[in-house]
Amino acid sequence: MHGINLYKFLLNYGKRGALSNIAGSDQGPGVERTATSLSISVLIADRDAEILAICQRILRPEKGIHIVGVARNGSEVIASALELKPHVLLLDLNSISQGKETSLLLLIREKSPKTKMILFSDAALSEDRVLKALSLGVRGYLDKDVLDTHLARAIKAVAAGEVWIPRRMVTRILDLLISLTAQEKILS
């Protein structure tokens, strides 16, 4: 990933405190308050029926989260996201044709700006792809092997305006930020 894209990400999100993990922050625009609870609508997108079933098994009993749909490919993701306008889109980038990810993420961000996106994938998804997606507005990332323990928490955190990324990526983002800051000082 080019430094300028990450730099734009950090400028866009870092100034708003998105890199911090603020528990108990306001619920953000993507969460509707009902008389009894918070309700977060979720669209799940993955080409693997087994993973879709796992996500549904994990999320169905969760209070405050309801699944509004599933999608198995890029065209279904776009159609469902634009029609349903979920609070959170849980998306496996490997379900999208390589090279079309950028346009898909930008389209969803433009046409459904209140939808917050979380990527999830197996270990095959490179950190560079995740960082690029973050620079395009994605607000979270989960490895599929931690879905049982972190999926519901990640959805609630992202819906509340927080960012959910593995610690190993926070270190890389901070290293890049330090590098960019040093480069700016040299250039100024």
How would you summarize the topology of this molecule?
Layout: H1 3-14, E1 32-33, E2 38-45, H2 49-59, E3 65-71, H3 74-84, E4 88-91, H4 101-111, E5 116-121, H5 127-135, E6 140-143, H6 147-159, H7 167-187
Parallel strand pairs: 2-3, 2-4, 4-5, 5-6
Antiparallel strand pairs: 1-2
Helix content: 40-55%
What's the number of structural domains? 1
Seen as an oligomer or otherwise, the chain set is single chain
What percent strand?
Answer: 15-25%
Cα separation of the termini: 24 Å
Could you tell me the CATH topology label: Rossmann fold
Radius of gyration in whole Å, from Cα? 16 Å
Give the second-level CATH assignment, the architecture. Answer: 3-Layer(aba) Sandwich
CATH class: Alpha Beta
The low-pLDDT segments are: 1-7, 13-36
Helix/strand order, N-terminal first = HEEHEHEHEHEHH
Overall strand count: 6
Number of helices: 7
CATH superfamily: Response regulator
Give a quick account of the main beta sheet: strands, pairing sense, barrel closure. Answer: 6 strands, mixed
Average pLDDT works out at 81
Q: What is the overall shape?
A: globular
What structural category characterises the helix and strand content?
Answer: alpha/beta
Describe this structure in words.
This protein has 188 residues and is α/β, with parallel strands linked by helices. The chain has a single domain (30-167), classed as Response regulator (Rossmann fold, 3-Layer(aba) Sandwich), CATH 3.40.50.2300. 47% of the residues lie in helices and 16% in strands. It has helices spanning 3-14, 49-59, 74-84, 101-111, 127-135, 147-159, 167-187; strands at residues 32-33, 38-45, 65-71, 88-91, 116-121, 140-143. Strands 1, 2, 3, 4, 5 and 6 form a 6-stranded mixed β-sheet that branches. Strand 5 (116-121), helix 5 and strand 6 form a beta-alpha-beta unit. The longest helix is centred in the C-terminal third of the chain and has 21 residues, at 167-187. The chain starts with a helix and ends with a helix. Mean pLDDT is 81; it is low at 1-7 and 13-36.
